[in-house]
Amino acid sequence: MKLYKLSSQMDAKALLQTVGVTHEGSALLIPKTHLNLIYIKDLKTPAANILKQDALSIGADLAVPKDTITCKVPLVDAVLIANDKQLKELAHKEKIQPFGLKEVAQKLSEFTFTCKDDFSVMGIINTNEDSFFQGSRFKDEAALKHVEHMIEEGATMIDLGGVSSRPGSIGVSEQEELSRVKPIIDLIFKHKLFEKAQFSLDSYSPLCLEYALTHGFSIVNDITALANDDVARVTAKYDATVILMHMQGDPKSMQHEPVYDNVMLEVDAFFEERIAKALHFGIKKIVLDVGIGFGKNLEHNLQLLKHHEHFLHFGYPLLIGASRKSMIDKIISTPIDERLPGTLALHLKAYEHGASIIRAHDVKAHVQALSVLQALNQTTI
Questions:
Q1: Which of 85, 137, 325, 339 is catalytic?
Q2: Which Pfam families match (predicted)?
Q3: CA angle, corner 227, sides to 223 and 230, nearest 5?
Q4: Once rounded to an integer, what is the mean pLDDT over residues 122-139?
Q5: Quick one: which of 32, 141, 183, 222 has the most CB atoms within 10 Å?
Q6: What gap in Å lies between CA 219 and CA 86, rounded to an integer?
Q7: What pTM does this model have?
Q8: 325 is catalytic
Q9: Are 244 and 278 in contact (CB under 8 A)?
Q10: Contact yes or no for 226/200 (Cβ under 8 A)
Q11: pLDDT digits (tens, 9 = 90+) for 157-209
Q12: Is 359 a catalytic residue?
């Protein structure tokens, strides 16, 4: 007899099929293979005691401060440790409990999701001269050739921008922005490239977005997350997909000492509000972007990437966009044109934690890296 330890990243379904487990047996076992660690903030102390006992009764556990049982303080933070099966059972149990546990039950039920392993690479192209990465700037026919090249390399989405949103940047008028992006939009439309990939406009200008959406574009990449009602109306009018990105402040000042009490909870609350607004305006297709580098310091960015899977509870695809950003330089001093390795490390981690759309300058490298990682994750014994 011989034993060896398997990676927790393995495809549980494929693994069980390899050893000959029946379909019915797999359905029972798969929810037991994924461990969840869920941080619960400001839980009422009586609720914590009830939740701990209920968790223990089904084989899960709740880590709490040592004085929780005496109820010396009204609120405590806790960490729930449970697999998917236990999470579902616990959510059912807490539906009838007092002290705010009904709300906990609702939240727990949202976390019973499965990460998908498919991915889309969104290539980046900019028309403005002040975009932070020079390698993404193109005009006229050169822009068309670059778009075609990215599609050939495996990009299934292309994101076009005409105004820089790098830290310290200043916006321009809608007319100026349209004058920058219109020639490329017209070329994409003329050559029907929208039949080969989805096109996104990185803009919060209703004027520019309406022009793009009537010329083959189908995605609104709004760094202000529908702050402007007119953007919401245009998006709904053309049944476009909206990318809702979190940003603290604005590009001009966002990196001036950003502060959060809890970045995960504050980004989560922001998404909840903006998703509700999108739905109110009749927008059906939504993508979420935590906004790496948009009003966040290095620690905020690292937390959002490490716990990226959390935001899947909303039920929408997640986009990650950390391509060549300054957080890499803050970890290890590196000029912009040498940040591809760091970019790949960040994006592969985000992919493993739920991101399915990867916004990147370097399409070919990302398609290759993600394809290899996908193959590794799908490999059985």
A1: 325
A2: Pterin_bind (PF00809)
A3: 110
A4: 73
A5: 222
A6: 38
A7: 0.86
A8: yes
A9: yes
A10: no
A11: 999 998 877 676 677 889 999 999 999 999 999 999 999 999 999 999 999 99
A12: yes
Other CB atoms within a 10 A radius of the CB of residue 174 amount to: 16
- Beta-carbon-side half-sphere exposure of residue 237 (alpha carbons within 13 Å): 13
Main-chain phi, psi angles of 371, to 5 degrees: -65, -40
**End-to-end C-alpha distance for the chain, whole angstroms:** 16
Question: Do the strands 61-63 and 75-83 form a parallel or antiparallel pair, or are they unpaired?
Answer: antiparallel
Residues 185, 215: contact at Cβ < 8 Å? yes
Q: And the tokens for 359?
A: 């916004």
Please give the distance of CA 128 from its chain centroid, rounded to a whole number: 26
Cβ–Cβ under 8 Å, residues 15 and 50: no
| Per-residue pLDDT band at 136 (split at 50, 70, 90) | low
Q: What is the phi-psi region of residue 313: left when phi exceeds 0, alpha when psi lies from -120 to 50, beta otherwise?
A: alpha
Within 8 A by CB and 6+ apart from 269, the residues are none
- 92-127 pLDDT, tens digit each: 999 999 999 999 999 998 887 766 778 999 999 988
Provide the 3-class DSSP secondary structure of residue 80. Answer: strand
* CB of 159 closer than 8 Å to CB of 120: no
At 161, which helix (H) or strand (E)? strand 157-161
Buried b (16+ CB within 10 A) or exposed e, 302-314: bbbbebbbbbbbb
Could you give the CA distance from residue 300 to residue 157 in angstroms, rounded to a whole number? 27
Residue 373 is encoded by which pair of tokens? 């990682």
Q: Is 315 exposed, middle or buried (0-12, 13-18, 19+ CB in 10 A)?
A: exposed
Contacts with 85 (C-beta within 8 Å, 6 or more apart), sequence order: 31, 32
Residue 311 per-residue DSSP state? G
Q: Residue 75 burial (CB < 10 Å; 0-12/13-18/19+)? A: exposed
Assigned token pair, 288: 């979420």
List, in order of start, the domains of the chain with CATH numbers: 34-110 (no CATH), 120-378 (3.20.20.20)
Q: Strand 157-161 to strand 198-202: parallel, antiparallel, or no bridges (unpaired)?
A: parallel
